[in-house]
Amino acid sequence: MMASEQRLRDFGRRMAEAQDAAMADGFDRDAAAARWEALLLEAPPEPRRSLVPVAAVLAVAAGLLGLVWLSMRPAPPLSVVVDAVPRAADAPLIAGASSPLSVGFSDGSALTLDAEGRASIAAVDARGAVLELERGRLHAAIVHRTDSRWRVRCGPFEVQVTGTRFDLAWDPGRGELAVSLFEGGVLVWGPALGGPQPVRAGERLTVSTERGEVRWGSATPEASVADAGEPALAPAGDGASIADAGEPANDPRDPARVEGASLMGAGEPATAPAAPAAAESASRTAPVVRAPQA
Fold first, then answer.
1. Residue 17: what are its φ and ψ, rounded to 5°?
2. Which fold has domain 80-290?
3. Domain spans, the chain
4. Model confidence over 26-70: pLDDT tens digits?
């Protein structure tokens, strides 16, 4: 039983007792008035409606509106630190003649631009950045997130990154790009590729815009497009490029590819001069030259 109901029952009982007492003593106007006044003063107060449920509903509604407002607000862009000093995102990145330049982002991603390298940040937001590598070598360690978006432009090439560790070397004078992957994977667009070209961990892709050719090898931390002792890129047949042929380049991981050989436009893989046993034992680390097909 509720406390308010019990108080009402007690009040009713006392009223009945007062009436019985008045009838037993005979009618006395003054005494009866005094009894009724005492009973009215003892009557339970009218219960008040609680405002707690209404306040709780309003608080929940305000919280939901706040969450909606916060979700609609754009997240702040990543902040940039260059050589441990905060820097505006649009400031040029120029490495010294003998010292590299370190660039850090607030999401934990880090870049190192080798000596004499030059780059810039074309755009930056909460999910990543667009970088321009004008010349030199760039070492990158990009933190993987589900919504991350990173791109690096090197002349006519573009590298799309999600989360990975890689090196880029761009020589604008020779028109050569080298992409070495150590973790994760990237997609590369550009001349001679015939479409987006995936590069996976352990692989190195070298592209020449002058010859319109693609070469594959193994990724090494210090490999460079200008390193001495590397096999020269074979000349493209009739000066054509893979992009000019209008057909996507075959995947370099196709087992039918002959490593160490040049494809000279006959439309079929060239036969390797090596003995069959040597060809079977060739590994992915050997250079692979791809030339346009007729």
1. -65, -40
2. Jelly Rolls (2.60.120)
3. 3-72, 80-290
4. 556 666 666 656 655 655 555 565 566 767 777 777 777 766 666
